[in-house]
Amino acid sequence: xxxxxxxxxxxxxxxxxxxxxxxxxxxxxxxxxxxxxxxxxxxxxxxxxxxxxxxxxxxxxxxxxxxxxxxxxxxxxxxxxxxxxxxxxxxxxxxxxxxxxxxxxxxxxxxxxxxxxxxxxxxxxxxxxxxxxxxxxxxxxxxxxxxxxxxxxxxxxxxxxxxxxxxxxxxxxxxxxxxxxxxxxxxxxxxxxxxxxxxxxxxxxxxxxxxxxxxxxxxxxxxxxxxxxxxxxxxxxxxxxxxxxxxxxxxxxxxxxxxxxxxxxxxxxxxxxxxxxxxxxxxxxxxxxxxxxxxxx
Length: 297
What we know:
It comes from Nonomuraea helvata. The chain is 40% helix and 20% strand. It is built from 12 helices and 12 strands. The protein has helices at 11-22, 34-43, 55-64, 80-98, 138-144, 169-180, 198-211, 228-239, 251-255, 258-262, 271-277, 286-291, and strands spanning 2-6, 26-31, 46-49, 67-70, 104-110, 151-157, 160-162, 183-186, 192-197, 217-220, 223-227, 243-246. The chain has a 7-stranded parallel β-sheet, with helices on both faces. Strands 7-9-11 form a 3-stranded mixed β-sheet. A two-stranded parallel sheet has the order 8-12. Helix 5 links the parallel strand 5 and strand 6 (151-157).
């Protein structure tokens, strides 16, 4: 099977490409730079040069593939509207290219905003609808194409997809601890994040291509809820820093943009996902990774 992957050299995408190549798939990755193209070619993948705004290249890559995995995102936290527009345009372009084919289209989605006062479950619909919503409402947009003959599948990734080398939300939290000389949590530290190791997330993407039903919402979640205080305490032990609370109104000042997310409860279940695809996460836990020095460098 030929799989076209956007975000193929990103944090999750590079692990997905490795997983697919190891399983015997032919992979073509979208690459916006010479370095990204070289990294893909070194692994044995093919390359399509372009970026998230190059819709003609994305359309051609999707049309030529037997499956599409869309993981690219601008992540422009200073200008979220730019990221939202680009995400929606890319998803619409891919889905249009796959109409009537029955081919799998796996796209990345988020867990934020799905539930209040309980862990999110796969049956919770995304509240993000329309081009001006988070991620441009791309999950709901993609799932609309199921009725048009596209096997659209949303994979909602835990807020921390962790492993050695992670440069995402957890890296920003650790950076704030170094910057202030204190490992902080917000309020009473009772809010919690779901978590998943990068290798387990990549495995789930492959399983989604192979067997997830059209219209599925999957949760890439190995740990349902790790309290933000537990996270801060692990960081403090690893960096030999004191652990203290910060007031919610000071979260963004202390942590930067990631403070908005660290203050949110983003816990989630993956029971349905595990049962549906026989997915059994086996990688290290978030705290194990922190204590093993994944964020020490």
